[in-house]
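Review form for a predicted model. The reviewer records the input and the model, then writes brief findings.
Reviewer: anonymous (R2)
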Amino acid sequence: MDDHDDELSSAKYEFVVWLKKNNLHSYQTALEEEGYEDLISIVLLNEDEIEELATAISMRPGHRKKLPVVINMVRKEMEREEEEQKEKYKREKEQETRERAKREREENVAEKLASIEDEKKLAKAKAQSVNESSGDGGSLTKKDAKTEPIESTEISADRWEMPADKDFFSFLSHKKNNSKLGSNTEMLAIRVSFTSAPSFSHPDLHSPRRSRIIWKREI
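Model under review:
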C-alpha cells in the first residue's frame, strides 16, 4: 500500500468515526453512494446542498436537523487545525530567521575581533620599528632630527622624527572610550615619551616628561 492509499484509508477512517460519534453511521452506505466518502466532501456543502443530501438519502427528521449542525462543527474544527498549522509554520520560520541572524552576528563579531587583532599586530610592529630606529641610527636619529612638531596623528611612524635634544622611547597604547550616549569606541595609538636633555648649567635637572601620539587608529 503506497502513501496515497494510506491517506485515503485515514480519511475514510476519520469519516466513519465522525458518523459513529454523531450517531449517523446508519447512513454511511447511502452517503458513499452519493459520493461522500470523507469529511472534506461533507464540509464543502452549503446549507441548501446539505438539505438536498438529507432528502436524497432519506434521512429521518431528527437526523436531518442534526446534520447541518455537526457539519458546521467539524468545519470549524478543521479550520482551527489549519490555523494552528499556519501558526506553527510561522513560528518555525521566525525561529529560523532568529538563528540565521544570530549566526551572522557571531560571524561579524569574529571578523571584527580578527580585524582588531590584525590592527594590534600592525601597531605593535610600528612601535617596535620606532624603538629599533631610535637605537640603531635609523630614521629617528638625533643627527637628522627636526625641531618642528608634526600635528597630524595619522602619519606613519617611520616618517616621524624627534628633536635632537630629546631623550625618548615609544610604546603602544590601547584605550576604550565609553560615551554617555551609549557609543563605545576603541583606539590603538603609538606614543613617544620624551624629556629634554639636561642643560650645562643644571646637569641634574630634567624637564617634565611628555608624550606625543605619532600614529593612531580607531578600531
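Findings: Confidence is low (pLDDT under 50) at residues 137-160.
Further findings: The chain has two domains: 3-92, 120-218.
Recommendation: see findings above.
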